[in-house]
Amino acid sequence: MDGQALESVDEFTYLECNMSQNVDSRKDVEKRNGKGLFISIDLILLVHYLSIYLSIYLSIYLSISVCSYLSFYLSLDLILFVHYLCKILPVHYLSISISSYLSIRSVNICHIFSYVSNCVCSYLSIYLSIYLSHSIHIYLSIYVCSYLSIYRSNFACSLSIYLSIYLF
């Protein structure tokens, strides 16, 4: 009887050790999964913001460097490709298309001041549309910014910058 009791005690301690090891390994897995989840969320946000900045610089750089409509279409295609990969909201398509158009338009005018003011204006419309959450204000600032930049003089470009900042 002592042998059977000893065997049952050994089995009990063996099961108890295995259960404690399973609990410990489960805690380790939960810790690893939690850290992995936070790392993946941070990585997704990093890729999101990196794609926004990359598309802004691609649109402005490509439409500045080559003074033709080919660069405009190429920059739009690259931007749409980057945004398609990262699943970004459609508001960014509109604002970055406007920035590319304004850059092409300013190169055709060939005045350095209007060129700089158009680039700043388009950058502000992109910045405001990305970092603000009210859609009415986003579309209003982009519309005012693009209308005053395309159809008015250099003074109107600086006015559009002023309006796009103080509309909010």
TrEMBL record:
Entry keywords, A to Z: Membrane, Transmembrane, Transmembrane helix
Keyword Membrane: yes
Taxonomic superkingdom: Eukaryota
Transmembrane domains' residue ranges: 36-54, 60-86, 107-130, 136-163
Protein's name in the database: Uncharacterized protein
Species whose genome carries this gene: Acanthosepion pharaonis (Pharaoh cuttlefish)
Organism taxonomic ancestry: Eukaryota, Metazoa, Spiralia, Lophotrochozoa, Mollusca
